[in-house]
Write a structure and sequence with these properties.
By secondary structure, the protein is mainly alpha-helical. The longest helix has 25 residues. It starts with a helix and ends in a 22-residue tail after the last helix.
């Protein structure tokens, strides 16, 4: 089913490229070209079996992709994360590492994936892990920025969640995150879907009550220009993650005990649905973490200048 994966990946990228040329207002910045050329060179060296690139291919590809997409956002909107707020962009990358390690912690019990071909000795392994994890949240956010910049989504009818509904959401989130940890391990291996939704329900209402950026707040204002781009970003990035991982020398394998016979790249086909809520989790977890370390304050709660211009502060 690899041809199917390649076709879907190329189709999603083609849509972005076509929309970029439809909406761009300026040429691609120099660092965008660096990302594009770097990605092409990395692909060529990987095909040639050039070991350092083949081993670190996933983080190299994502670094180049992030540079390219940020430059595309800049060309469409006139502003972007890396160009306008490099310090905040660095904060996203740095926080991406511990936030992903939470999922790695769950995986220690659930045993849903494993890594092969990891470079040795351990400093090289840490470089690969850290570099890869640092690209996760920026990749999601940058792709969502580009989708949002296309202007596909307009305001809709406001949907307000009552305080009681928010309490129920928090309870559902907490239970979802506890079930995989408390169930017997032979059962919990089947329950990772709870982890992919749990943090959204647990943290987003809390972020809203703190006056921070939130999906609950967006829905209350009739705004969908963050929710849908994040979901689409999860879809796009999910296919890119699996596409680039499949060809890398250092990679992950999914070992959960279901659907192993219907894989596209390394991921069983239904598993791609998990990337949609995962993108929402990246957002809500980042907001909570950034607020906790003092990088995000309530003063931005009423800003509505666009997801890409105020990535953490809107």
């Amino acid at each position: 089913m690899v041809p199917l994966g390649i076709a879907i990946t190329l189709l999603s990228l083609t849509v972005q490229v076509v929309e970029f040329f439809r909406h761009r207002r300026s040429s691609l910045a120099t660092y965008g070209w660096v990302g594009l050329v770097g990605l092409a060179v990395a692909e060529l060296l990987r095909l040639c079996g050039f070991e350092p690139v083949a081993v670190y291919f996933t983080p190299i590809a994502w670094t180049c992709y992030i540079l390219l997409v940020d430059a595309a956002v800049l060309a469409v909107r006139g502003s972007s994360r890396l160009h306008d707020e490099p310090a905040h962009f660095a904060c996203v990358a740095v926080l991406s590492i511990p936030l992903w390690l939470i999922f790695e912690g769950y995986n220690l019990r659930l045993q849903n994936w494993t890594y092969v071909g990891v470079p040795q000795p351990w400093p090289l392994a840490l470089l690969g892990y850290g570099w890869s994890f640092a690209t996760i949240t920026p990749g999601i956010f940058e792709t969502a920025d580009l989708i949002e910049a296309f202007g596909w989504f307009r305001r809709a009818v406001p949907v307000a969640f009552s305080p009681r509904a928010q309490r129920v959401m928090i309870a559902v989130g907490a239970i979802s995150l506890l079930i995989p940890l408390t169930a017997p391990q032979h059962i919990s291996r089947y329950l990772f879907a709870f982890v992919w939704i749990g943090f959204v329900f647990l943290l987003d209402p809390v972020n809203y009550q703190l006056g921070l950026p939130s999906l609950v707040g967006d829905f209350a204002e009739g705004r969908r220009s963050r929710f849908y781009p994040l979901m689409i970003s999860g879809f796009v990035c999910g296919w890119l993650w699996e596409f680039w991982n499949y060809w890398a020398a250092a990679k992950w394998h999914y070992i959960f005990p279901i659907l192993q016979g219907c894989k596209v790249f390394e991921m069983p086909l239904p598993g791609y649905l998990g990337f949609l809520p995962f993108a929402l989790e990246c957002f809500v977890m980042y907001v909570t973490a950034a607020w906790f370390i003092g990088r995000l304050t309530r003063k931005y709660e009423n800003i509505s200048a666009g997801f890409s211009r105020y990535p953490m502060n809107q």
